Amino acid sequence: MELLTDLSLYWQQYPSAIIVLVFAICYVIYYNLFVVKVPHLACKDEKFRRFLLEHCPAVTEKFKPTIWCFESRAQTIIGSFIKSSPKITYDSELVIMPDGGQIILDWYENENKDCRILNVSLNS
Fold first, then answer.
1. Which residues contact 69 (CB under 8 A, 6 or more apart)?
2. Using CA atoms in the order 6, 12, 14, 16, what is the torsion angle rounded to 10 degrees?
3. Transmembrane residues, as ranges (predicted)?
4. pLDDT at 27
């Protein structure tokens, strides 16, 4: 009972705290209902689609972006201010396309060969 009395006194002293609490609860509910989603896999080739579903568990798991910055445009803007530079060594491969275009593929291989990161960059 003493806890309820203390809470009641706290809310009376800081009435804006209840507004912040309600906002925080609504924000977490919104995040869990509308932001956290399983990625949509758009793939025309059914064989490749099955391969991805069988070998890439991230395709079927819910994606949870950071709770404090989940909107993609905001991530781009904030990402330009917050820099992280992990030391990654990779091999680059230049692929000449039949139409004369060029694609550079950056390959990273770790020690146990379980993970490969493919970074494709398209330029005009």
1. 75, 78
2. 130
3. 14-34
4. 94
pLDDT tens column, 19-75:
999 999 999 999 999 999 988 888 888 898 888 888 888 888 898 888 888 888 888
Q: Say whether pTM exceeds 0.85.
A: no
Domain boundaries, the chain: 1-35, 38-84, 85-124
Cβ–Cβ under 8 Å, residues 37 and 63 = yes
3-class DSSP assignment, residue 65: coil
Question: Do residues 107 and 91 lie in contact, with contact meaning Cβ atoms separated by under 8 Å?
Answer: yes
Kindly report the three-state secondary structure assignment for every residue of 3-47. HHHHHHHHHHHCHHHHHHHHHHHHHHHHHHHHHCECCCCCCCCHH
